[in-house]
Amino acid sequence: MTTEQAQLPNPHRVVIVGAGFGGLEATFRLAGAPVAITLVDRRNHHLFQPLLYQVATASLATSEIAWPIRYLLRDRAEVTTLFATVNGVDAANKRVLLDDGDTLSYDTLILATGAFHAYFGHDEWEPFAPGLKTLEDATTLRRRILVAFERAERETDPARRAALLTFVIVGAGPTGVELAGTIAELARDTLPPDFRNIDTQHARVVLIEAGPRVLAGFADDLSTYAQRSLESLGVEVVLGKPVTECSADGVMYGGEQLAAKTLIWAAGVRASPAAEWLNAPADRAGRLQVDPDLTVPGHPDIFAIGDTVAIAGPDGKPVPGIAPAAKQQGRYVADTIKARLRGETLPPFHYKNSGSLAQIGKHRAVIDFGTFKLRGVLAWWIWSIAHIYFLIGLRNRLQVAISWLWVYLRDQRAARLITQGSSKVVGPAATRDPAYKISKPD
Amino acid sequence: MTTEQAQLPNPHRVVIVGAGFGGLEATFRLAGAPVAITLVDRRNHHLFQPLLYQVATASLATSEIAWPIRYLLRDRAEVTTLFATVNGVDAANKRVLLDDGDTLSYDTLILATGAFHAYFGHDEWEPFAPGLKTLEDATTLRRRILVAFERAERETDPARRAALLTFVIVGAGPTGVELAGTIAELARDTLPPDFRNIDTQHARVVLIEAGPRVLAGFADDLSTYAQRSLESLGVEVVLGKPVTECSADGVMYGGEQLAAKTLIWAAGVRASPAAEWLNAPADRAGRLQVDPDLTVPGHPDIFAIGDTVAIAGPDGKPVPGIAPAAKQQGRYVADTIKARLRGETLPPFHYKNSGSLAQIGKHRAVIDFGTFKLRGVLAWWIWSIAHIYFLIGLRNRLQVAISWLWVYLRDQRAARLITQGSSKVVGPAATRDPAYKISKPD
User: Fold this and answer.
1) For residue A30, what are the domain limits?
2) CA angle (A208, A366, A216) in 5-degree steps
3) What is the ipTM of this complex?
């Protein structure tokens, strides 16, 4: 059926940039429409970002949360998947510009290009406090976290050992909270039997937030619960103190210097440069301001969705940068395109609060659906089942369920691999100590 | 019990370098002995190398075939796992030298440092024809293979497209045969529905071997069967032609140039520099010549095992560089150390042929136990079950079984991820073509 439609002499050409939740959902929803779709992404895989922190903390394998885009669309003859990097839009000539000089002509364009982590004008902090947006970011963080424990095991100087066993997460949104809770569990439950010279339970996990509470997007009482849960896992929660410096030695906040060898940035995002491509108005985080039908002002043939746009929900608050919001927008845009092809129009996009979830270690989660709120063990089970449900494909569901079962029952984490670096990354500078000899087991 | 023994005032210090099959098996077998063990590896994980080609061909995830070494030894209080790189042995003072200047004193030393791929004096070929020894090698090959298909999908020049769709494997030992068969299946069964502009079934997989037959270590009739099986999968088998040049454009053999953008080196290994560390006699491949009790001549306190040694089996043929041989040697050395501590000696090491197995795509494998030989579907089932059995831990067995089930039933491969590189690795040079426009689906 779709093949037949694609064989229409001049199908309406839709180019979708970005195969995240928004772009992929739009592609799925356009099934059956008389269109020819080109879906462009600079990665070959769709990434289930909500679980990326579990790759960074060695709980899941990379392939359990990422799927080849073209595989997901293999049965859609009218969809061409393109592994390429977009670096501009020529709106006058209705063309997308690729970084290798090629161009893609469109009748309708959907920009779903997402966001990346931002350092508020301090990009020089990135090498010391990497963020978490891609699979490589996750394996980099995993390597840094695991190597810190390895270096601590060989370090004899108490101050240096303490700095190696101090993990600082900057920013207490869902990603920061989930990372802090999981690193605390890794140190407290998973690693202790494996080390001989250090007690990993003495590791410090410090979560620093400039605002007044953790999980600012959630209801007050859930924030309080999340904070107490983190503290019960041993996480030190620091509120109301912006970070003023990140370096190889640690982090400065509220006038104090904390010596820490592992910093993780979860404090903010900046939109992809879609607004710059179009020279269109954007907010301070670079997010495109779009019309109520999610088109870019002055460009009725260009939609923008997901983390790269700023739009207010029915309650006047900004629509959050979460997967369900991007998917709702992807569906809306696909429906709008189909309606236009029928000569119809749709009412403006209406965001339905699809809830926010965050996990804080084993057995604890918070769920905020606005009217419906939940916390504790039941919330944790709902969180777990929901995330398995939202994974794509039975195989991934089975494999993630097995990985989680082992974390749950045995505190084993599936992917404690240090890759892209042999022991040399442990670094001689910190461990070379003429007096140092490997201590014997006692 | 082991704790008690480790608390002996002066336990016998065993240092084991390398946590591959040999070193790990020796460590396991020393359980209960009155020794203090330090196991050093420059990786944090033990790698199940026989399945590494399945990571390279996207069938398995990295974490399914690798386990943190310290996790495997967490219950052994007398074992200290050290994530460090050895770069020498000071035999006179009975010390192992680490690259960061630290040293490890030993009473008995076991060198189980393995081998790496060798280019017979042509190290300049390595960038064009990478080998397969580490997890990073596997993800690099996976990226190259998958990117070649992506580039071909965007290439309009027929000659360049053909070169992108030509995969050359140099060397027809088990690794070369298994890689060739799996890449052929990937192109023939897994990828076709995913691409729009190319027919991946037209990909050429060329296996080039300098010797007269594939799987030279197997019986003649199994070699013949393996070759026929490869050919039935569409692999072109070239025998008796050594490769004389590898470059960015392809490979030269028997005076002919074959244009190919993906070359894989499976033609030879060289031992790790253990012989150099000891200034001890070695064969042309750098393998230590050891005494019948696997000690290094002149060094009764230094054992060497696995791929870094050359030793003849009872049939006079060299003991092959396979996991079961390394494990047998690890067990023998552990038993010898225990016997010495009791004041006893053991008879010389006796290699028992534990058989060779190779898989050639779905449903076909060869098994050669010397007297017992098997090929075909039953051999393939035995191969599959044996490999799942030899994996460590129930979780990995379940997850690998699930991954294989999906390959078996649906030709889906779990880990088709291009990592460590966005679409930029596709490379503008080969695809930039002013006349090129993305073709529409037809």
Assistant:
1) 2-42+84-117+269-341
2) 40
3) 0.89
